[in-house]
Amino acid sequence: MNYIIENAEVKYPRLDKTYRFDNTENRSVPCDPLDDGAAYSSQFILDKDQAKALQVAMVEAYAGAKKEKDGWPTEIPFPFKKTDDGRYEGKVTFKGAYGKDVTSKPKQYDGANKELPDGFQLTTGSTANFSVTLVPYSMATTGVSLRLRAVQVTKYVPMQAASPFGVVEDGYSGEGSPFSVATDADKVAAVTPVSAEEVEAVEPEVVEAPISEPKKVVKLKSAAAPKGDTDLSAIVDGWDD
Question: Which of 73-77, 116-120, 180-184 has the lowest mean pLDDT?
């Protein structure tokens, strides 16, 4: 069952190549498609109506698969994590390989449906449509995975270069200026001409030259230098208004 998740906020996209979670580094790192856990993935954030519609589709897909399976549970867990601002977070994935068969990277398109370059890197905070296949399963856990097929970027947030430094308390701040900001009145006064009557006459100071005395020589001393989760009907009824 195919489904398009529309207008989702993108979070932690890893779509330019396969990644796996490294327990030593405690983060996702690029890897070979055949490595254990290698996958293309992205988290996404939806509002309540978007999440509700997706959950209904997931429950319908699970219910249809369950009819052909024996022993599958009647319910699946709630598929999203609620965020601090009251929205819902989910995840799409696509394995780098199934067995020894390497998969093809999910294609990415722009808003005009033009395929983006192979090395294009989607960013957190962007908005996108995710084309997924709903895949019900029941193994150690039960649910419906969102297998990623393609991505359409509808709003792109440029990537920001990350600083390797932390915040220094009471450190230098480049904000502010030692100069005052001239007001409009100041700027007008600076360029408005004045009449001759408005200029106060200033008599030049006359300095008389000292009279030289040939028998007396005055030497000047140098100055010192300064110092210085449930069935379909229950799901529909269970969402808060």
Answer: 180-184
Does residue 168 fall inside a structural domain? no
**Residue 72 belongs to a domain:** yes
For residue 115, give every residue at least 6 positions away whose Cβ sits within 8 Å of its Cβ, in sequence order, or none: 107, 108, 109
Domains identified in the chain, total number: 1
Identify the CATH number of the domain in which residue 74 sits: 2.40.50.140
How many residues does the structure list for the chain?
241
Q: What tens digit of pLDDT does each residue of 18-66 get?
A: 999 999 999 999 999 999 999 999 999 999 999 999 999 999 999 999 9
61 lies in a domain?
yes
pLDDT of 155 reads 97
State the burial class of residue 181 (Cβ atoms within 10 Å of its Cβ: 0-12, 13-18, 19+).
exposed
In a domain, 115, yes or no: yes
Q: Tens of pLDDT along 94-136?
A: 999 999 999 999 999 999 999 999 989 999 999 999 999 999 9
Domain that holds residue 52: 2-159
